[in-house]
Every structure is written in C-alpha cells, then in structure tokens.
Write a structure and sequence with these properties.
single chain; two-stranded antiparallel sheet; about 120 residues
C-alpha cells in the first residue's frame, strides 16, 4: 500500500438518532461534524478540531524552537444546543425537568511532548 500523508486530515460525518416512542418533536435528531487535523513543522505545530457549530472542540499545540519539548496549549470548547434537553418517562415528556444548558470554555497551558519508540513502556 502506498504511504499516506497524515499531516493534513479532514473528515466529515453525519447521521441521526431516531428514538422510538420518544417525546413529541424529539423522535429524530440529526447531527454532523467536521474533523480537522494538522501536524505541521515536523510536529511543532498541531491542531485538532471537531467542528459542528453548536458543539466545537478545538486544540492547538505550538512548540517554538528552543523550548526543548515544552509547548503552549490553547483550547476552546463550547456546547450551545438551541433546544431543551428533555426527560421522557414512558414516552411522555416531563416538562418540569426540561433543561437548557450551555457552556463555553477556553484554556491556555503548557505541555511537554517527547517521542517514544513503538512498544515503549513507562
């Protein structure tokens, strides 16, 4: 098999969830996302992203020359689904416990990365 360049990967997935005897209006829920991976500059710049609009999980690692394995890590994560989370008991929606739950998180930190040979143990 020919070698594959895995420094740049894009993938799109889509589907849906079908709930039998679920609450009205929530029987079918579609979903889809874009996965993006970049490994550039011999691994010193990496990006991983799951992008769906209402849910996103992004991470960037940057290791400037001379940092000897240390790298800056930036993260962003959000969940902003535009409808309530519903509890259903025997097919009946329990409106008293409907929940709207949103969050947005961003982070910055330091990491350490070093290559290991295949099969190596701590």
């Amino acid at each position: 098999m020919p070698e594959r360049d895995r420094t740049r990967v894009n993938a799109f997935s889509m589907g849906g969830m079908w709930t039998l005897q679920g609450p009205s209006g929530y029987g079918f829920v579609p979903f889809g996302s874009l996965f993006v991976w970049r490994n550039l500059d011999d691994g010193r710049k990496r990006f991983r992203g799951e992008i769906a609009g209402v849910y996103n999980d992004l991470r960037a690692n940057i290791a400037p020359a001379g940092w000897n394995g240390l790298e800056a890590v930036l993260t962003f994560n959000n969940l902003t689904i535009p409808y309530e989370r519903v509890e259903s008991v025997e097919g009946q929606r329990q409106r008293a416990v409907d929940l709207r739950w949103y969050w947005l998180r961003a982070g910055f930190g330091l990491g350490y990365r070093t290559p290991w040979r295949p099969g190596a143990h701590l």
